[in-house]
Amino acid sequence: MTPDAAAVTPSPPVPDAVGRALRLDDLADAARRALPRDVWDFVSGGSGTESALAGNRAAFDRLRAVPRVLAGQPEGPGAWDLVGVRARLPLAIAPMAYQRMLHPRGELATAGAAAAAGVPFTISTLSSQRIEDITALGGTPWFQLYWLRDRGLVHDLVQRAEDSGCRALMVTVDVPRMGRRLRDIRNDFALPVGVSAVNLSPEVARGPQDRRAGASAVADHTSSAFDPTLSWDDLARLRERTRLPLILKGVLHPDDADRAADLGVAALVVSNHGGRQFDGAVASVDALPAVRDAVAGRCALLLDSGVRHGTDVLKALALGASGVLIGRPALWGLAAGGQEGVRTALSLLDEELREAMALSGCADPSAVRRLRLVNGPCHTPD
Amino acid sequence: MTPDAAAVTPSPPVPDAVGRALRLDDLADAARRALPRDVWDFVSGGSGTESALAGNRAAFDRLRAVPRVLAGQPEGPGAWDLVGVRARLPLAIAPMAYQRMLHPRGELATAGAAAAAGVPFTISTLSSQRIEDITALGGTPWFQLYWLRDRGLVHDLVQRAEDSGCRALMVTVDVPRMGRRLRDIRNDFALPVGVSAVNLSPEVARGPQDRRAGASAVADHTSSAFDPTLSWDDLARLRERTRLPLILKGVLHPDDADRAADLGVAALVVSNHGGRQFDGAVASVDALPAVRDAVAGRCALLLDSGVRHGTDVLKALALGASGVLIGRPALWGLAAGGQEGVRTALSLLDEELREAMALSGCADPSAVRRLRLVNGPCHTPD
Amino acid sequence: MTPDAAAVTPSPPVPDAVGRALRLDDLADAARRALPRDVWDFVSGGSGTESALAGNRAAFDRLRAVPRVLAGQPEGPGAWDLVGVRARLPLAIAPMAYQRMLHPRGELATAGAAAAAGVPFTISTLSSQRIEDITALGGTPWFQLYWLRDRGLVHDLVQRAEDSGCRALMVTVDVPRMGRRLRDIRNDFALPVGVSAVNLSPEVARGPQDRRAGASAVADHTSSAFDPTLSWDDLARLRERTRLPLILKGVLHPDDADRAADLGVAALVVSNHGGRQFDGAVASVDALPAVRDAVAGRCALLLDSGVRHGTDVLKALALGASGVLIGRPALWGLAAGGQEGVRTALSLLDEELREAMALSGCADPSAVRRLRLVNGPCHTPD
Amino acid sequence: MTPDAAAVTPSPPVPDAVGRALRLDDLADAARRALPRDVWDFVSGGSGTESALAGNRAAFDRLRAVPRVLAGQPEGPGAWDLVGVRARLPLAIAPMAYQRMLHPRGELATAGAAAAAGVPFTISTLSSQRIEDITALGGTPWFQLYWLRDRGLVHDLVQRAEDSGCRALMVTVDVPRMGRRLRDIRNDFALPVGVSAVNLSPEVARGPQDRRAGASAVADHTSSAFDPTLSWDDLARLRERTRLPLILKGVLHPDDADRAADLGVAALVVSNHGGRQFDGAVASVDALPAVRDAVAGRCALLLDSGVRHGTDVLKALALGASGVLIGRPALWGLAAGGQEGVRTALSLLDEELREAMALSGCADPSAVRRLRLVNGPCHTPD
Question: Could you tell me the domains of chain D?
Answer without folding.
Answer: 24-376 (3.20.20.70)
